[in-house]
């Protein structure tokens, strides 16, 4: 089973991907990870959520879905200014209390105990003005990225008792990790514990983790889902057997800065259609991305022809074709989106 969703037209790019693990297939189980993303239609505040149901519980899949959807509803239905002003303790109590009520309702409907819906929670929220919040209960990984500072791990569960032991949102008084800030983070990556060992090593993000975050700013969400499929297949070949899920949230206005902040060798390999340009052509490509990153509603072909001074729409279409083929731009009819 595979599932994905993506967002393209707001201030932020976001995408999600999840895939059932080989061990769950062998045991006839469903995928117990759940991901969801959304944006507020008026404020532009955008959130990505990931939850991993406890495999030992009878309703792990239901638990992760209820937890993820409820967390997304909680942060998008409320005024972000109020959420941002809350103390760590008040934010945690409010969110966990809301989740507890939603999970109790689900448990009653299923005729089971609350603990049978136990799940983890990873959440990141960004506002167009640069403010952000993140919240983490249980295992999994939250990483962040900025054009100036690179990529790093924000939150990772430390397994004290055993590698498969963690805490859940259903545990009374559960421990949680939390952060907020104003600027300094341009994007977030959230993952379940399935790929965690392949993305983190000795408290540092691996090259795979950094590359996922960096390309999230530059690829279209559809292309990014393809990349996450490829990463998942690679990790499975290397021995990953658990469910695997990712959510990404990236500020599209920082895409050009992220592009120039990448390792030059990696940049040349991934974006040869941009790297091969030089002189006046390169300057015009910079103009293109500088304009398109601020136009989540896309740009029509005649607009782009004027911007690039190509004089004919047919020439513009030809110049943009490699960018569409490489998954940097998305073309819908005669309109282009970044």
Order of helices and strands: EEHEEHHHEEEEEEHEEHHEHHHHEHHEE
The description of the largest β-sheet is:
6 strands, antiparallel
Shape: globular
Q: Report how far apart the termini are.
A: 29 Å
Number of helices: 13
Structural class from helices and strands? alpha+beta
Which strand order does the major sheet show? 1-2-13-10-7-8
Number of strands: 16
Helical residue percent band: 40-55%
Radius of gyration: 21 Å
**Content of β-strand:** 25-35%
Return the average pLDDT rounded to an integer. 89
Instruction: List low-confidence stretches.
Output: none
Account of the 3D structure:
The protein is α+β, with helices and mostly antiparallel strands and 338 residues long. It is built from 13 helices and 16 strands. The protein has helices at residues 22-26, 60-77, 80-85, 88-110, 196-199, 207-216, 221-237, 255-261, 264-270, 272-275, 279-292, 301-308, 313-325, and strands at 2-7, 12-19, 33-39, 46-52, 121-126, 131-137, 141-146, 150-156, 177-182, 187-191, 200-201, 204-205, 244-251, 299-300, 330-332, 335-337. The strands form four sheets. It has a six-stranded antiparallel beta sheet with strand order 1-2-13-10-7-8, covered by helices on one side. Strands 3-4-5-6-9 form a five-stranded antiparallel beta sheet, with helices on one face. Strands 14-16-15 form a three-stranded antiparallel beta sheet. Helix 12 (301-308) packs across helix 13. The protein starts with a strand and ends with a strand.
């Amino acid at each position: 089973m595979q599932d994905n969703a993506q967002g393209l037209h707001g201030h932020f790019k976001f995408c999600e991907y999840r895939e059932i693990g080989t061990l769950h297939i062998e045991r006839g189980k469903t995928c117990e990870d759940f991901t969801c993303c959304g944006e507020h239609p008026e404020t532009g505040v955008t959130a990505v959520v990931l939850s991993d149901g406890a495999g030992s519980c009878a309703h792990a899949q239901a638990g992760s879905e209820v937890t993820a959807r409820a967390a997304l509803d909680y942060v998008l239905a409320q005024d972000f200014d109020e959420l941002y002003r809350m103390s760590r303790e008040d934010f945690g109590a409010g969110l966990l209390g809301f989740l507890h009520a939603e999970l109790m309702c689900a448990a009653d409907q299923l005729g089971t105990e609350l603990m049978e819906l136990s799940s983890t929670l990873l959440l990141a929220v960004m506002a167009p003005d640069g403010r952000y919040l993140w919240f983490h209960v249980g295992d999994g990984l939250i990483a962040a990225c900025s054009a100036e500072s690179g990529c790093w791990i924000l939150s990772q569960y430390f397994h004290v008792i055993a590698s498969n032991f963690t805490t859940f949102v259903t545990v009374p008084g559960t421990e949680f990790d939390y952060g907020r800030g104003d600027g300094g983070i341009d994007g977030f990556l959230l993952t379940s514990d399935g790929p965690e060992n392949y993305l983190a090593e000795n408290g540092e993000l691996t090259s795979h983790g950094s590359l996922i975050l960096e390309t999230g700013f530059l690829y279209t969400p559809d292309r990014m889902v393809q990349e996450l499929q490829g990463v998942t297949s690679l990790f499975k070949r290397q021995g990953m057997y658990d469910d695997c899920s990712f959510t990404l949230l990236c500020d599209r206005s920082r895409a050009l800065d992220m592009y120039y902040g990448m390792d030059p060798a990696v940049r040349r390999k991934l974006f040869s259609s941009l790297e091969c340009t030089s002189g006046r052509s390169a300057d015009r490509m910079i103009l293109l991305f500088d304009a398109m990153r601020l136009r989540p509603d896309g740009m029509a072909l005649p607009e782009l022809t004027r911007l690039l001074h190509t004089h004919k729409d047919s020439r513009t279409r030809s110049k943009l074709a490699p960018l569409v083929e490489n998954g940097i731009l998305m073309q819908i009819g005669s309109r282009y989106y970044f």
